[in-house]
Specification:
Helix content: 25-40%
Number of domains: 1
Structural class: alpha/beta
Shape: globular
Order of helices and strands: HEEEHEHEHEHEEEEHHEH
Strand content: 15-25%
CATH topology: Spore Coat Polysaccharide Biosynthesis Protein SpsA, Chain A
CATH architecture: Alpha-Beta Complex
Number of strands: 11
Largest sheet: 7 strands, mixed
């Protein structure tokens, strides 16, 4: 029973998709976010190390910019994970949603409908193995589960003129994070039926099918690196150690 009491169904295969093909324009500079140095290692190395510590995944597909598969294999896999055959570089798309769909297509021939597919942002390096296990465990039961946190600020709904329209109760709101985990048959259907819908996360596409998405309490340290400030904050979190129990 890994993860300090988290019940995982051992007969369930589990694979991981890491979308890493984005440009990261808000970060600035010429280096893409997954390859920025964080505590002397590329961001994505920290993310992969956390995911490997969870001891969950039979395969890890990293969706990189098309044409950069060999570069990733040489500079990341060979340099930091020599001899590890579970990490596979595959071509992504021009958007995060397209990258995940490309990853799902790569899985079609190697998984069945009950396989748990875990999608995690390549630039969330402060995820704890414990959180990964908890979200996977809930997805095994419910078919779909996501990490999320309750916002600490009061949220306002505003109109186009920047006038406040309403104030939702904070108790009814969560800020979605990754990991987000799904049975393959469910997430495959959700992406195939998305059509022209542009979704900011995979759970949104599953919600459109009318399916239940279970929320697992996430962590405020599980930040997505978007700005230079986030990079500095992540360095502090990593320096203090990511709590296994979070």
């Amino acid at each position: 029973m890994p993860g300090g009491g988290v019940y995982l169904r051992e007969n369930k295969d589990c694979v991981l998709l890491l979308p890493a093909a984005g440009q990261g324009l808000r970060m600035g500079g010429e280096v893409k976010k997954p390859y920025l140095l964080l505590a002397d290692k590329p961001v994505i190395v920290h993310t992969l190390q956390a995911c490997l510590r969870a001891a969950l995944f039979s395969r890890i597909f990293v969706m990189v910019t098309p044409g950069e598969e060999s570069l990733f294999a040489e500079e990341i896999c060979k340099a930091y994970f020599p001899g590890n055959n579970t990490i596979i570089a595959a071509p992504g798309g021009s958007t995060r949603q397209e990258s995940v769909l490309q990853g799902l297509k790569a899985l079609c021939a190697v998984v069945d409908g009950e396989t748990i597919v875990c999608v995690h942002d390549a630039v969330r390096p402060c995820v704890s193995p414990r959180l990964l296990r908890r979200v996977v465990a809930e997805a095994q039961v419910w078919g779909a589960a996501i990490a999320a946190v309750t916002p600490t600020d009061t949220i306002k709904v505003v109109g186009g003129d920047n006038n406040v329209l309403s104030t939702p109760l904070r108790e009814t709101l969560v800020a979605a994070q990754t990991p987000q985990c799904f049975k393959f048959s469910l997430i495959w259907e959700a992406h195939c039926r998305a059509g022209a819908v542009s979704a900011s996360d995979d759970a949104m596409l599953v919600e459109r099918l009318g399916k239940t998405v279970k929320v697992v309490p996430g962590s405020h340290t599980n930040i997505k690196l978007t700005t230079p400030h986030d990079l500095r904050l992540a360095a502090l979190y990593l320096a203090n150690g990511i709590e296994e129990g979070v």
